[in-house]
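Weekly sync notes, structure subgroup
Attendees: PM, AL, DS (notes)

Item 1: joint prediction request from the bench team. They want all two components modeled as one assembly rather than separately. Inputs as received:
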Amino acid sequence: MRWLRNNAIMIVAVAVVLYMLIPIAVIAAFSFNDPSGKFNFTWQGFTFEHWENAFGIPELTDALVASLQLAALSTVIATILGTMIAMALVRYEFRGRKATNLLIVIPITSPEVVIGAALLSLFVYAEVATGFVTLLLAHVMFTISFVVIVVRSRLIGFDRRLEEAARDLGADAWTTFRTVTLPLIAPGLGAAAFLAFALSLDDFVISNFNSGTTVTFPLYIFGAAQRGIPVEVNVLATMLFLLTVTAMGFTVWQQHRATKLAAVRPDEDADTGFPTAKPAGGRAAGSAA
Amino acid sequence: MRAWAQKKGIPYFLLFPGLAWLFVFFVVPMAFMFGISLYEGSLDTTFEFTWNFDNYSDSISTYDTQFLRSFLYAGIATFFCLLLAYPLAYAIAFKAGKWAPVLLFLVVAPFFTTYLIRTYAWQTILSNDSVIADVLRSLGLIDDRILKTPAAVIAGLTYNFLPFMILPIYASLEQLDKRLIEAGRDLYSSSATAFRKITLPLSMPGVIAGTLLTFIPAVGDYINATFLGNTNQAMIGNVIQSQYLITKDYPVAAALSFTMMAIIVVIVLVYIKFAGSESLMGEDRAL
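Output from the run, pasted for the record:
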């Protein structure tokens, strides 16, 4: 009883986490289902058939490829543009800071259906045919804000003396950025890019309005929902999940290792008699974990 | 002079491409949508700009049920999200110890399966011959089915937006200076009082950010109502989507979008007034 009282909050926490994982377990389990009809709702029997046939539905595979291309392109553009804004916000004085912040927050706090509808209004009015390009424009737009917020939090913990040191040693601004700033903010950029990629890959609503004839993975699922979603969708979704989880697990493990190494290095440097950037290096690596 | 221009110019150079993108593909479309909401006509005839404010009164009076329903469902879902998210965020921040990264990872894990598939999975879980439906039926909590009821739609909304509530609350609890709680305890407050007077107020920015990030997308959502409900649970997002993409009655759809946006902006402004914009954007400057 006492144990129950002391651990009540952990029990609730674990229950909530399990609740969050139920649908994922269902998706994975039903990827092995062998439904008799079109609808993959009730468990009928175990089969590997759909895993073997994972890429066997051309429209589905095309949709997944389109989604991956779209996510990759929009991530690159949004990460660059968002990082530039974050740099300006953290490091410079300029007029219009409030307006800038507002312009970044409002898209995040707008319902997707409004963003999608508004963009379609523009494209209809300007007589721009919707398709892959309009999807790209839209995806970059709604991911920039997230990149700014992630990268900004990373830049705030940045020790600028490291850059000054590089400048003092004769590096020009670009070299300093490339060899000092960029490697130090790389984990933040990675996290931002990862988030942008996930958001783009997952987006349905805004794409629903601006896709024209282009079909992305979520759009395919929506289209298939009425006539029964093929089991292969479960297979691909499970694959995507496992891939991203592995990638993320690997990144976390790498950062963990980097932190450990960084924690050792200053002493070694001290032994060799080199001056070190001990507090800064330790902090930068520490906050990466 | 040149050095001055260089130095002063840098931030604008950095800001320009991103802000221009946001301006052209967010602000301008919003302005266009407002314009279109004042048009008259249909796709068959022609659309004409006539300051047709009737679109607003007509669409609101036609779809007032869906409007009310959206805000009601979103409000209930946000409440349940808060109820589930706070204990979890608290546990990750204070109790989980070395398990904290694992729990945090599991919280974001659902993001790695498509939103639509997760909702589709709930369709499976709640379907008529599912275990859950059987249990609820035998307990007498439902007469017949759970799918295609308001409860199913609200459950779906709660599920899908839960991470948006957990993460900001966790962030604010994690940043909290734990010495303040110790100080409270040293001054003989009970742990409940310490929570009520120290932890809870200091985590309010996270709670406010979380409620906004849950409530706003939930109001505009139409996936949950499509997959887990029927026309009796249609939300305003469903109406906007079908008006835009199927009926193609752009003026009415635009008026509906704008009305929803306006109501949300009012709610956000009231909230921010009361909480400070830092809860959403955080502190800007490191220097």
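Discussion: Chain A has a mean pLDDT of 82.
Action: AL to compare against the crosslinking data before next sync.
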